[in-house]
Amino acid sequence: xxxxxxxxxxxxxxxxxxxxxxxxxxxxxxxxxxxxxxxxxxxxxxxxxxxxxxxxxxxxxxxxxxxxxxxxxxxxxxxxxxxxxxxxxxxxxxxxxxxxxxxxxxxxxxxxxxxxxxxxxxxxxxxxxxxxxxxxxxxxxxxxxxxxxxxxxxxxxxxxxxxxxxxxxxxxxxxxxxxxxxxxxxxxxxxxxxxxxxxxxxxxxxxxxxxxxxxxxxxxxxxxxxxxxxxxxxxxxxxxxxxxxxxxxxxxxxxxxxxxxxxxxxxxxxxxxxxxxxxxxxxxxxxxxxxxxxxxxxxxxxxxxxxxxxxxxxxxxxxxxxxxxxxxxxxxxxxxxxxxxxxxxxxxxxxx
Length: 352
Known about the structure:
Layout: H1 2-14, E1 37-40, E2 43-46, H2 49-61, H3 66-86, H4 88-92, H5 96-108, H6 111-131, E3 148-154, E4 160-165, E5 168-174, H7 182-193, H8 201-214, H9 217-229, H10 244-256, E6 264-267, E7 277-280, E8 285-288, H11 299-315, E9 318-320, E10 323-325, H12 329-335, H13 341-350
Parallel strand pairs: 3-5, 6-8
Antiparallel strand pairs: 1-2, 4-5, 7-8, 9-10
């Protein structure tokens, strides 16, 4: 799996934006994190932080010594925290990739979390072998699958993703699955790169198992620990006109009886006109468009958009023929219960 991880890491570095650059390598073979922060339109990036995580992930794939890994991770966390102490503005405005990388490192700095992660990698290797027990079937000259398939766990914004490399396929699952049972880990391999994964009753069962676990308590516990454990300040909810914290409290109290737990609330980084909001269940994050933070936008409208996104959190998603249905008939019925629904919906459709 180390060659596949190396190829994946190389491609990931090539995909980074100019605001996040690679640095040198120390005599111990570690990527150096420079004591600078690089601003971009998406926030502040700590130089080489993501590259450090890439290197640690390769070491994990290569069966590195757990005690050495723990020391390495803790040393990396100390370096990030030293950088943030010198640049306190970086902590509150850290861009997504750097923020998730630091949270991931901070999470694994706990010995029990690292042990769970390494056990999950072992379980993943078994799952890959069960799904693809051999790359060549009798009577076929060419391999049916790449020479290597690896399943890794990292702090990503989606439940899972896969990427082909010259050496094989790398499947990356959300860190929330790190304590998942064997059948869920196997389902991740099947759903991301299993034979016949796009059709059939089996594919529906795999995705249902993944979804059921992702909305369960253990997945959410890990994600909450990731988000809160690093001690970073949450995104600033205050806009020029509206404060998302106040909007959430009002909508939660008036329309949900105050029963909803507060998600991570954030304005998007770039003004968008078409997409006014989004709820991401994997990270329990609710984002509203900065285009709504305008004195010309009625309070009724921003409350309605908040209500719409909180409905996603409250109702979850339906599944039909293996597909996720976010705006089901039940969802639309609940949406129309919003007082002033017709007025708010009409404003959203004709907004400037």
